[in-house]
Each structure stands twice: as C-alpha cells, then as structure tokens.
From TrEMBL:
The EC number(s) this enzyme carries: 1.1.1.169
PANTHER family the UniProt entry points to: 2-DEHYDROPANTOATE 2-REDUCTASE, PROBABLE 2-DEHYDROPANTOATE 2-REDUCTASE
Function: Catalyzes the NADPH-dependent reduction of ketopantoate into pantoic acid.
Superkingdom in the source lineage: Bacteria
UniProt lineage: Bacteria, Pseudomonadati, Pseudomonadota, Gammaproteobacteria, Enterobacterales
Catalyzed reactions per annotation: (R)-pantoate + NADP(+) = 2-dehydropantoate + NADPH + H(+)
Name this polypeptide is given: 2-dehydropantoate 2-reductase
Keyword Zinc-finger: no
Parts forming coiled coils: none
Length: 307
C-alpha cells in the first residue's frame, strides 16, 4: 500500500515515522523548508518508548506522479485548502483519505472536493509537538490512530487498511463508530482547548483556581448541548469519564491548540471553537462561554497577524 503522509509535523511526523520504521511504503508531502531540514537531519522522533530516526522519502507539491492508496492528512485546518490543491494529483479512483484533524468541518470539505466515498472518518489521540530543532516530541505514552468508514459499515478496504496500520508501534483502532468517536473527541478537545486557551494555563491550574472547575463544567455543558443538538449523543460513560479526566486536580492537561497559542503560533480557532458556535447559532442555542472563547481566539489571531 503506497502511503502519502501530508505534513511531517507533530502528528504526521510521528505516525508517518512509525509506519516507515516498520517497513511501510511511506512518502511525506512537505513544503520547502521542512524538506530541507528533513533531508539534512532526518526525521527524529523522541517517542515515549525511546528515540528513533528515519531518513524519510520526501515529495513537494508539483512532484506527485500518480495516485496513492492512502493519504494520511495531518495538516492544520488553516492549511487544508492549500493541501487539497496539492494532493489532488495523488487522489485516484481507489484512494482512501484518512484525516486526523480535530473537529468535524474538514470531513464535509474533503467529501465535497474528492467525493464522500474516498474520505474515511479518522482521529488521533496523542500529545505531540515539535522541539526547536524540528524533531517530534511525544509528550506522553498516548499514540492512538482510529479510522473507519464514515457510516460505520465494515468493508474490505478498511480491513486491508487496518492490517497495514497494525504492528507499527502505535495504537491503531479500526472503528465501526468513527463518526461518534469524532464527536466524542470534539467534546473533550474543544472543552480542553477552550478552557486552557481562555485561562492561559493547564487544567490543573484551572481546577485549583477559585471558580475554575465551575467554568470548566459550564464550557463542557455548552459543548455537550451543541453536539446533542446536532444529533449526536456521546455515550453516558464517555460524558462522565471525560469530565472526570478534565477536572482531575492531579493531572495537568493541555491541548495542542493551547500549546500552539503559548508559542505564538496560529490556532485552529474556527475549526475547533468557531464551528461549534456556528452550529449553536443554527440551533438557536445560547453558548456565551464558547462565544467568549471564540472572540478571544480571534483577537489573538488578529494580533498575531498584525505583529
Ligand atoms: N499535536 C497534537 O498533539 C495533536 C494534534 N491534532 C490535530 O492534528 C492536526 C495536525 O496537527 P499537528 O500535526 O499538531 O500540526 P503541525 O503544525 O505540527 O503539523 C502540520 C504540518 O503540516 C504541514 N503542512 C501544512 N500544509 C502543508 C502542505 N500543503 N503540504 C505539505 N505540508 C503541509 C506543516 O508544514 P510547514 O512546516 O511547512 O508549515 C506542518 O509541518 C490538527 O488538526 C490538530 O488539531 C490532534 C491530536 C493531537
Ligand atoms: C485530545 C487531545 C488533547 C490529545 O489527542 C488532542 O487532540 C489535542 O491536544 O489536540
């Protein structure tokens, strides 16, 4: 199976390197600066289970010759439009596109461009980032990649994909409920992103602040109400466990959006929070806290762009 990993950042670099290290046929689609760095230094991964390095096969936009069997899409939401243009020559009749982006909006965008049947549901759970040398840093043992047919049916192609992604050193999961899994992940991630970005701190600091736990719970309730209004019902056990995890005063959690904000990088405000606010508005659902977070992040983005 020929695999094109689009982006060699925190998630693409991690999962792509694991796949290549285990003998899968992986090529990374990267941009010029990343290509130069990876050519010179290789792709270095500081994994929880130990460090390793691969010399990746690289391509840049315009160099793609023919379709790939799998496109693992690991760009940020604000890079999606460009990535769609760049991968178009790699998408053939049988190509499967597996996106790991947070949120939901990209699924319909990709479906509209390439055809819904080519786009799998997907998500990853990992705490990873790039260090100052552009190396991948896995910050906890978590490294889960889940995927499945959007409508949950079993198929030969997802079984084949599952076989290829198995035994590559990360936790791969074929899911027959991937849409619901993605909504459940959004519940976790958007609450975590909202509360950490708003407070400029981790969940432990939030929960140990006066009114912090109540704020977290109130944001969580707003997100849950939006998701439910959209027709998805997170499982009761997941609702309870997620809130318990987020409110645990012993565990300082951050989201990738907060880590980006903390470093002055662009954040996926529209995809992770704005889309929830839009959906709430469509259902005439008041979400004052999410709205406050969204405004806050938009102002951050404007300040960044002006600076
Ligand atoms: N990091 C994490 O812990 C987690 C992230 N996620 C989600 O995963 C998605 C990806 O995030 P993450 O990996 O952290 O992001 P990163 O910014 O670390 O990596 C994205 C990479 O995509 C590259 N890229 C963007 N556009 C293109 C393009 N057209 N062609 C080639 N390369 C491109 C960027 O390259 P360049 O260097 O050239 O800009 C960058 O290296 C996001 O939606 C995020 O929310 C989900 C779970 C955890
Ligand atoms: C759920 C979590 C926190 C870990 O995968 C995440 O998706 C993120 O940080 O973007």
């Amino acid at each position: 199976m020929r695999i094109l990993v689009v982006g060699a950042g925190s998630t693409g670099g991690y999962f792509g390197a694991c796949l290549a290290r285990h003998g899968r046929d992986v090529t990374f689609l990267v941009r010029e600066r990343r290509a130069a760095a990876l050519r010179d230094h290789g792709l270095v991964v500081h994994a929880d289970a130990g460090d390793f390095k691969i010399q990746p096969q690289l391509l840049q936009a315009g160099e793609i010759r023919g379709p790939y069997d799998l496109i693992l899409l690991t760009v940020k939401s604000f890079g999606l439009e460009q990535a769609i243009r760049d991968i178009t020559p790699a998408v053939g009749e049988q190509t499967l596109i597996l996106p790991v982006l947070n949120g939901m909006r990209h699924i319909s965008t990709l479906g509209e461009v390439f055809g819904k049947e080519k786009v799998l549901g997907g998500l990853c759970k990992i705490h990873s980032t790039l260090n100052k040398d552009g190396e991948i840093l896995q910050m906890s043992a978590l490294h889960q990649l889940s995927y499945g047919e959007q409508d949950g049916h079993d198929s030969a192609r997802v079984r084949q994909l599952d076989a290829v992604l198995s035994d590559c050193g990360f936790d791969n999961r074929l899911s027959m409920t991937i849409q619901n899994d993605m909504w459940e992940k959004w519940l976790l991630l958007s609450t975590l992103g909202a509360v950490t970005c708003l407070s400029r701190g981790n969940t432990q600091q939030v929960v140990r602040s006066a009114g912090g736990e109540a704020l977290l719970q109130a944001i969580y309730s707003e997100v849950l109400a939006v998701i439910t209004a959209c027709g998805y019902q997170p499982r009761p056990a997941v609702i309870a466990a997620t809130l318990q995890m987020l409110s645990n005063p012993e565990t300082p959690l951050t989201s990738s959006m907060y880590r980006d904000l903390d470093q002055g990088f662009s954040v996926e405000a529209d995809q992770i929070i704005g889309d929830l606010v839009d959906r709430a508005n469509a259902h005439a659902l008041p979400v004052p806290l999410l709205n406050a977070v969204y405004v806050n992040l938009q102002v951050y983005q404007q300040t960044r762009q002006a600076g």
